[in-house]
Every structure is written in structure tokens, then in C-alpha cells.
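User: New here, please read:
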Amino acid sequence: MLFRNELYKICSRKILIAGALLGFLFMAAYVQMSVLGTESAFDNGTCLRRTDAIQYNREIARRYAGPLTREKAEAVIAEFGWYINDDDLDTGDTAPGYYANSTSRFVTIRLSNSRSQEGVPTAIAGTDDNYAAEMMNGEYVYGYIGGWDNTFSEMHMMILWIVSALVIISCAPVFSEEYAGQAAGILLTTQNGRTKTAAAKILAAFAWAGGIYLLFTLLLAGAFLSIYGSDGLAVSAGLSFPDLITGNLFWNGDPKRTTGAVLLVYLLAGLFSVLVTAAITLYISSVKKSSFSTLLWSAAAYLLPAALYTVFLVEMGPGRIVMLLRMLFNCLPFFLPFHELTSWPFAYRVGSYLISGIILVSACLFGCRKYCRYQVGK
């Protein structure tokens, strides 16, 4: 009963409903303009756009799906030629005989010798290019990569920021609102006011945070499935996310795992980061007697580390203190999910989750303690 009442108090806030609606509208507009709007392909000189281009790219990729080899890369170039950057083409149709699709683009950018030829490919990369040679050893599975690569992760990153903002707004008044309204002292006289109210508030806040995150994530995944299909989820993750591969060094588990498996872990890490954000906000709410003050401090706790990291730490030399600060900042909610799409060491990622888990548990326990002590007038 207490949990249901607390959850209703959070869900009934009009500002959260309006924020969630605006977030959904932003997501829909971004998919239409920035995701679909950038899809293009050329079939014998004819320019294809949006869903037509996606369908064409999927058909071509299916013909070359399976283990990626040097022979397969050479066959792609023999059939379609080298991919030309869209910026170097006039808009609209080109002369007959020009082909450009996601498969020829992948081979040109990732598997050719363009990196050693000032961006102009002349042949498939040789064995001296460890990066390309590793991908063409037959152990990586190729398929249509479109959508389920950095396109999805960048879109989800923006959704994660929107959800985090909603979580901070929803959790900021949980305790501080009762302080301001003098309701905390009254709850002391109720049967469960001292023992169960704080726990119910925290569980309700976590239920809201997890629920709104899963809702937006499922909507995004559903949109990408309807647009791009599920082909890309079976592709080796190292082909979808280049940062998983660093030359011949494989620090982030197995880059030959499927893209779907890597994205699942990434999405679970996103859920964990949202819960950590909620816990930090709840602790600040238990300390502050003003919801607005809690909102400002919570927003600062979420954004300030990202700003300091981006503006200062990235530009500093690799000293011991700088490296330690980088590691600590990367354990905070803003950065937490992105470790799964990079070549960070496995032990480091596990350590990040452990530190974040300690922050979550500590924030909840100290928040409960602070709230209960306020009730008894301590």
C-alpha cells in the first residue's frame, strides 16, 4: 500500500508526463530527420533514399553475409567499385554505372588501404594492416550493419540523458518535499512511518526510474527493428563497433560476439546507470529541505563530472592523478554504459560496476538513515 501510494505520487506529477511526452516526440523527430534522413544508396546511378536505401542495402549485404574473408572483400569491390564519399557527389542521380551501398562503403572504409593512401583506396589492405587483416581472417561474421551500430548507441545516448533528467526531476522531491511541508514529523505518528516509509519511497523511485528507462528503450528498439530489421544483431560486434578492436589487442571480451549480445549488456548497463542516478538524487533529497535545491545539486552531480572530464581531463597528460580521476569519473552514471562499446579492460569495467554499486547502496542506506533521524528529531 505504501509503495503504491508513493509510486502514484511520482507518476501523477504533470511535469514528468509532459517531459516524457516531449522526449518521445523528440525521439520520433530525430529518427525521421537524422536517422532516416541520412540513409542513401546508389543503384546503377540512381539515388535511393530513406527506407528504399535501407532495403537495397539489406539485399546487398545478405549476398555477402557470413564469415568475412579477403576474397569476399575483393568480390565486393569487383562488383560495385570503391565507395565515394557522399560529400564528393552531386545530390540526386549520377551517371549510370555507379554503385554505392553499405557493403561497398564498409569495405572501402574499413578494409582498404585508404588509411595509408591519404584517403584514396587503391587495393584491399595487406597483411601489414593488423586491423583489417584481423577482420578478414574468416572469424568475423558480416551482415547488414546499418542501424545497429553507432547509430543506435548515439540515439540511445540521447534517450539516456532525457531519462536521467526525468529521473532527477522525479526523485528530487521524494524526501525534501515532506521536509518543506512539515509532513515528515507527522509520519512519525503512523504505524509504518518510521520503519517502512523510506523504503517504500526508494522502491517507488527505482520502479519509476527503471520503468521509464525500459519504456523509452523498448520504443527505440522497436523503431529500429521496424526500420532496419534484425539482420545487424547477428553481425560480429567488432564490425559494428570499431572501438571494440584495437589492432591485435582484444581487451573488451570477445569482439566476435554478436552485436545483439553486446547491445543487450550495454542496455543493462544503461539501466544500472539510471538507478545509480536515482539513488544519488534520493540521498541529496534526504539532506536538502528544498526540492529546487535538490534538483540543482543532483543535476550538478550528474553533469559536472562529465564537463570536467571533457574540458580538462581529456586534454591533460597521462599522469597518475589524472588517470585516477579519469577512472573515478568513468564510474559515474554519465559514462557507465559506454564502457561496453569500447576497448576498456574487462577488469576495469567490472571495477566500475562495483564502485557504482557501492555508490547506489550507500546512497540508499544513508538516505534512509537521514530521513529516519529527521523523523525522530535528531
In short: Residues 2-33+149-375 form one domain. Strands lie at 40-43, 46-49, 66-69, 137-142. The chain has two domains: 2-33+149-375, 66-142.
